[in-house]
Amino acid sequence: MKTRLLLAAACTAAACLAPAGLTSASSGIKAPPVAHAPARAAADPVTSDGFDALIYDATLYVEVPLAGTFGQDTHRENVIETIRMAAANPYIQHAVFMINSDADSGQLYDKEVVGIHANELEFHAVIQDALFLATFPVFFSDSIFVTDGARVGGMPLKRYFPPGSQEVLAKWVGITTNQLASAAETRGHNPDIVRAMIDETKSLHYWLEGGEIHVTNTAPPSTGHLQDYEHVTPLSEGETVFLNHDQAIKFGLAQHIEEYDAVWVGDLIGAQNWTPANRYGFVTLDLAVIMNGLAPLQEGLDGLNNQLPAIPRNSENSNNPQIERLRDAKRALDRGVDAIDTVAEAVEDLYATHPERHVYFPGQYGQTILADPDAWANDLRQSQQLVSRIRSGLNTLQNAIEALDVVRMGIVPNFGLNPDFVDPYIEALDRIDTHLKGIGEYGNAHYWDDIYKVPYPEDEYGVTYG
Fold first, then answer.
1. Most CB within 10 Å of its CB: which of 12, 256, 257, 285?
2. How many angstroms separate the CA atoms of 142 and 123, rounded?
3. How buried is 238 (Cβ within 10 angstroms: 0-12 exposed, 13-18 middle, 19+ buried)?
4. What does the alpha-carbon distance between residue 355 and residue 375 come to, in Å, rounded to a whole number?
């Protein structure tokens, strides 16, 4: 468990970033609203009545949030788990990357994050901004859409790899460049655009000739006879090319989309009855917040463990207050490490059981229509049990850190953990708990009030009841 957590932390391209909650004013994440609790007209919140007819005509998609700083506002685990959920569900055919990031920091994307299950799903990118590291997932998308004012590119790879020999750096930059260019070409995108966006030595040449569009890294022999010639270069030394909204469309990379909203994608790709499958990608962001918060806490406990001296076996030290304090520190340390393992395992299980992973539709009088109400109810029970286990683990971890902060005095002068560090993860768990209770009481579709509003029945005079 420790190894997995430390590997998650090691992905950062810059210094460790402070944890963020589900909603962030700066990130642009379109998080679920705080749902109210409307009066429920139906006896049961969920039903399977009508599901087969609804699913027959629907083209289902799931949104994958990629807004803000990757590793702070959105997380590797959440992206992977959302794509896995969609790929494992036979009803879901599409995944939509919702990209809005101009952050020049954070974790590095890689093929194992955004390129998994490419054969089982069709991927699309809706872009408000995809600058710097956010360029990476764009080229793992089968179709790309840009809103007014959008920008794409500007990812000089050399900047994001850890320092090392120029030979090693050149090797890794070359591997990643080829991987990304290949992914783009496989999906019908121009690989020269990719290379210009990540290699600071390259630029883009655009022109029309004989009615055909040319976009290459190589300049034409002459430009006098060419129509609409344009040369796009990096803005400054050490930077790479980025394209604005008009250029991305003109160069054949993207199509225009009216709003930063996945609902518009269906018409643009010709999908019939384009329907969101669920809100799993957004609802489970808080799980990733908790999981990512465990890694630095684990590192802090490991660091303290390495600093603590061994407990002497000499019986003469049995009544030594310093030795007793050391024993207390060791015991608190063990409790903290065990608590991290408990929380991490429960979070992983909660990804697999969360009732928001079910495909559902809004039904009449506040019911949610889904395939298997019994399986949904079982997932809900298991999820609530896992939330209780996570809460217990986080409380134990916080108490252990508090105990360590007291007993380490006089043993280890510098201890970088504080009990308050656990608070953001308890708050994230509170949001998860709130959503589960609301989903359980009112059903998924009825709970998320921006997806569904209750059509209370009207009498013959137009008076509504409910």
1. 285
2. 5
3. exposed
4. 9
Residue whose token pair is 């109210």: 36
Q: Report the topology of domain 282-447.
A: Butyryl-CoA Dehydrogenase, subunit A; domain 3 (1.20.140)
Domain ranges for the chain, please list them: 2-31+59-272, 282-447
pLDDT tens profile 283-334: 999 999 999 999 989 988 888 777 776 766 665 556 666 677 777 888 888 9
C-alpha dist (Å) from residue 361 to 58, 112, 189, 356, 443 = 10, 31, 34, 12, 10
Residue 451 structure tokens:
């997806």
Q: What is the C-alpha to C-alpha distance for residues 262 and 428, in angstroms, rounded to an integer?
A: 25
Q: What is the DSSP letter of 1?
A: -
Looking at the DSSP bridge assignments, the partners of residue 125 are 97, 144
| 131 Cβ contact list (under 8 Å, min separation 6) | 101, 102, 103, 104, 151, 152, 153, 154, 155, 242
**C-alpha distances in Å from residue 61, one per residue of 1, 187, 265, 271, 296:** 33, 19, 10, 10, 34
Contact 113, 79 (CB under 8 A): yes
Per-residue pLDDT tens over the stretch 386-425: 999 999 999 999 999 888 866 555 555 566 678 899 999 9
> pTM for the full model?
0.83
Phi-psi region of 149 (alpha: psi -120 to 50; beta: other; left: phi over 0): left
CA-to-CA distance for 338 and 331, rounded, in angstroms? 11
CATH number given to 2-31+59-272 = 3.90.226.10
